[in-house]
Amino acid sequence: MIGSAVPRKEDAALLTGRGTFVDDIHRPGLLHMVYVHSTQAHALITGIDAEEARSLPGVLGVWTARDFAGLPPRPSVPGLERGYLAGDKVHYVGEPVAVVVAADRYTAADAARAVRVSYEPLPVMATVEAALAPDAVPIFAPLPGNLALEQPVTPDVADDLAAAPHRLRARLVNQRCAGAPLEPYGVLADWTGPGPTVWATVQAPHRVRAEIAERFGLARHLVRVIAPDVGGAFGVKSSFMPELFLAPELSRRLGRPVKYVETRGEHMVHTYHGRDQVQDIEVGFDAEGRLLALDVTITVNIGGVPDPVGIGLATLTSYMLGGCYKIPKIAARYRSVVTNTTPTASYRGAGRPEASFLIERVVDLVARELGRDPADVRKVNLIQPQEMPYQTPFEGIVYDEADYPAALDLLLSELDYAGLREEQARRLADPAAPLLGVGLSTFVEMGGFGPTPLFEQFGYLGGWESANVRLQPDGSVIVLVGTAPHGQGHQTALAQIVADQLNVPFDDISVLYGDTAVVQEGTGTMGSRGMPVAGNAVHQAAAEVAAKARAIAAHMLEADADDVVPIGDGFQVKGVPEVTVTLAEVAERSFKPHLLPEGTALGLENTAYFEPKNLSYPSGAHGCVVEIDRDTGRVSILRYVCVDDCGTVINPLTARGQIHGGVAQGIAQALMEKVAFDADGRPLTASLEDYLVPGPLDLPPYETHHIETKSSFNPLGAKGLGEAGATAAPQAVVNAVVDALAHLGVRDVEMPCTPERVWKVMHDAS
Amino acid sequence: MRVEITVNGQPHSREIEPRLLLVHFLRDTLSLTGTHVGCDTSSCGACTVLLDGEAVKSCTVLAAQADGCAVTTVEGLAGADGLSPVQQGFRQCHGLQCGFCTPGMVMAATALLAEQPDPTEQEIRNGLKGNMCRCTGYQMIVESVQWAAANGGAK
Fold first, then answer.
1. Which residues of A touch B35 (CB under 8 A)?
2. Going edge to edge, which strands form the sheet with A116-121?
3. A263 vs B125: CB contact, 8 Å cut-off?
4. Are residues A195 and A320 in the same domain?
5. What would the pLDDT profile of A254-299 be if each residue is shown by its tens digit?
6. Distance of alpha carbon A593 from alpha carbon A154, whole angstroms
7. Average pLDDT over residues A155-174
């Protein structure tokens, strides 16, 4: 079954309206919680008048920060503890200031609007420049200034740069993006028993259980967290939003279930954003374009309240700065800066797309500087397959098996690169023809998160994943897995792995996840860890069950285990086709103690915790062909070609879906999306009218190809795929846009490359 | 006020607040939670249903405006023989990932095929332009609709 494009088990329910998303769940006596959000970017709260709101029929109460003063802080950066609601001051527009609970969602919204908050404005620092200016005032107490963290990752390379025959400097901007899953954040908490049951749109239910239990002083068995169907997450549902704790607390106080579901308008200002880096780069290289030394200073805008993931995400950017190239010396340092904007944290790729964008743009800049073809400059720098596993300049960052040159060669041939260059020259000579540009992106990213020592740093219990594989007495299988997928198709892909190990029909396997009362301790879904970590846990557990089944079969067939071989639906004695037993018979026998070999434990079941040896490194080569209208600056994508190496492909259909979706988000970052604020910190993209999530007419068809180099870091050989497209695509598109304009002397176009921006660049250049 | 709305062939008579949106009438009053809410600006189309056969965004229609009308939601699409051709197409071609936009997308695609039984790729993209999907990047949705067009259409 591994490698088969089987349609998904998940689909029938989701296609017929039988999915169960948080907002679909109803509990008797359900109440609705709504926030009052700050309308100010930086201000002291001088008063909150909730009298009118409280008087509305159906309103159960209005609560402010001081009502939750007894609750330990949310998971925070040590020393920079954050609460649930703004206390004395607000740090950004959209920060929750008060919370209202009412009998229905319309009344709750009315009441939230009736709460009057008085503010005394403070100076607003909505940009990193403003926040670091000499006259800036500290935004987040207890920080004495707005520089929350300054981190050198590797030492200085000044001497190596000075010794390089050529050098260039660049400043690149990786703009702020919103994850914008179609389902906004939601929580339903029912604490009418000894502990809360919490249904939530989260990516790591066991971690959420631990954090809730800790804050309320409960043993974990009393807390049940369920991530039901989750409508997309892209990393933004891994942040510890206040509602995860406020909904249970209010349910406890009111003795009734409480539901909070974010509106889209709230999502755009309240749920944490991603990216938002400025990168200052100096690179040294030789006449062939060989990269000799790289020096990078990253400045990250982490928003108004530091998030424990957001504050350190640039560590991952630093680790991946070398991309798939042999760069002997890399110096990286980063600064995380507090500003009066929504906090930033994980968004699909979380720190790695920023690195891939940087190095891929740098390679193009080097090629341009030397007048060489960007494909040729890539070729002289690529790490070769025989050099794998490859130790990067960063301790512990070791790339697994891959063939980067083969991926680039396949891409160039699929693109007909030489033909495109000819077509480009032809169009350049014809003023009536739109400009043509070709962009390449030979990328590598990190997947398969763990291992444990790394994942502990992000607050997780471990970096392993767990799986329980259990045969039912009729030979059908239930799998419990510790991930919490939200569209990736784990029910399907993990069942394929089990089907192969146990020789059980795919339809006889059910995969369950997302419920802490059902599933053994698990880690969750993020960091492209589904197949490389959870897949291996399932693989390992199923293999143990298969071995035990074979031993029982041997006993039933009165043969040595070594002489028993798996056949279609069971086992036979080697060379004796008439002596067989079905797996269903073996499964039933496993529950009959008096008919088993002495000392055999009952049942056919195994729980495995798979700890990866290291991260995995999905890679590939993507190419984009764009056309630019000479009059309007509008960029149209003519072709988008992907060559991906995610190691073993479990299901080509869902793998294709993951690539498409990631590429779509990458293209959207390159051409359309940007979370923006004005100088006073007012959000300019607080709805889907203003924040341009692409529609069907905005995105091209994608051509997908695979190179399959199995990773030696895990038994399945899988590397992960969920973030590869989003990591690869932005620079493929931007390199193409810059390539189309290169004859004008254009060196860079900042994302998103909107018609307005491209038109201005063209005009300024000519 | 009282409204009478037929949903998936079933007549319903309910006392409602005049400001109640059709999507909340379906989800909260009738517990038909297949129709989703993804935004508050009529941008995303997750709430698309058929109102007297026309695709509408039910977050932008008052329940009062649907008084006397017939509404079809995703729950009313599959016949006794299982999934409709559009639903089957989405399954065959992996036209859904998280499934949140899917009910609206399936309803919009059904309305599209009722009007244009054999649409081109561009006509499909144009016909679905009121619906957003954050997971698939749309190509496999286009392929799903093409599959449905070739296998029974808007049925």
1. 17
2. A89-90, A43-49, A116-121
3. no
4. no
5. 999 999 999 999 999 999 999 999 999 999 999 999 999 999 999 9
6. 61
7. 96
Residue where a domain terminates, one of A587, A610, A633: A610
Confidence of residue B104 (pLDDT cuts 50, 70, 90): very high
Q: What is the CATH number of the domain that holds A505?
A: 3.30.365.10
Contacts A664 to B, Cβ<8 Å = 136-138
CB A342 within 8 A of CB A677: no
Q: Based on the domain organization, do A411 and A291 belong to the same domain?
A: yes
Q: Which residue of A has its CA nearest to B87?
A: A15
Is A135 contained in some domain?
no
Q: How much is the pLDDT for B79? A: 74
Q: Are residues A260 and A284 in the same domain?
A: no
Please provide the average confidence, as pLDDT, over all residues in chain A: 97
Half-sphere exposure of A249 (CA within 13 A, CB side): 22
**Long-range contacts of the stretch A152-155 (C-beta < 8 A, 24+):** A152/A332, A152/A333, A153/A315, A153/A318, A153/A319, A153/A332, A153/A333, A153/A334, A153/A394, A154/A318, A154/A330, A154/A331, A154/A332, A154/A393, A154/A394, A155/A331
Nearest CA in chain B to A264: B39
Phi, then psi, of A604 in degrees rounded to 5: -120, 95
Mutate to test the interface with A, among B138, B140, B144, B146 (most CBs of A within 10 A): B138
What single-letter DSSP state applies at residue B19?
A: T
What type of residue sits at position A512?
L
pLDDT for the residue numbered A599: 92
- Coil, strand or helix: which one is A175? strand
How many domains would you assign to chain A?
3
Listed by number, the residues of chain A in 153-182 with a beta carbon closer than 8 Å to a beta carbon of chain B are: 180-182
Decide if the complex's ipTM is over 0.95: yes
Same domain assignment for residues A345 and A378: yes
Average pLDDT rounded to a whole number, residues A243-249: 98
CATH number for A71:
3.90.1170.50
Is A146 part of a structural domain of the chain?
no
Same domain for A585 and A461: yes
B95 to chain A: closest CA residue: A657
Look at residue A339 and tell me if it is in a domain.
yes
Residues A248 and A335 in one domain: no
Residues in B closer than 8 angstroms to A347, CB to CB, are: none
Cβ <8 Å between A665 and B134 = yes
- The answer to whether the Cβ–Cβ distance between B97 and A232 falls below 8 Å is yes
For residues A370 and A460, membership in a common domain is answered with no
Transcribe A187-228 into DSSP letters. Answer: EEEE-SSSS-EEEE--S-HHHHHHHHHHHHT--GGG-EEE--
Q: Does B32 touch chain A (CB under 8 A)?
A: yes
| Pair A537, A603 in one domain | yes
A661–B136 C-beta distance less than 8 A: yes
- Residues 52-71 of chain B whose Cβ lies under 8 A from any Cβ of chain A: none
Range of the domain at A68: 11-122+180-269
**CB atoms A657 and B97 under 8 Å:** yes
Contact assessment for residue A483 and residue A515, using Cβ atoms and an 8 Å cutoff: no
Nearest residue in chain B measured CA to CA from A701 = B139
Query: Does A15 sit within 8 Å of B91, measured CB to CB?
Result: yes
Angle at A490 between CA A484 and CA A491, to 5 degrees: 110
Kindly identify which residue of chain B lies nearest to residue A13, measuring between CA atoms. Answer: B99
Identify the domain boundary among A562, A594, A610: A610
Please check whether residue A344 lies inside any domain of the structure.
yes
In 3D, which of A359, A358, A350, A445 has the Cα closest to residue A397?
A445
Q: Name chain A contacts of B141, Cβ cutoff 8 Å.
A: 696
Q: What is the mean pLDDT of the segment spanning B21-28?
A: 98
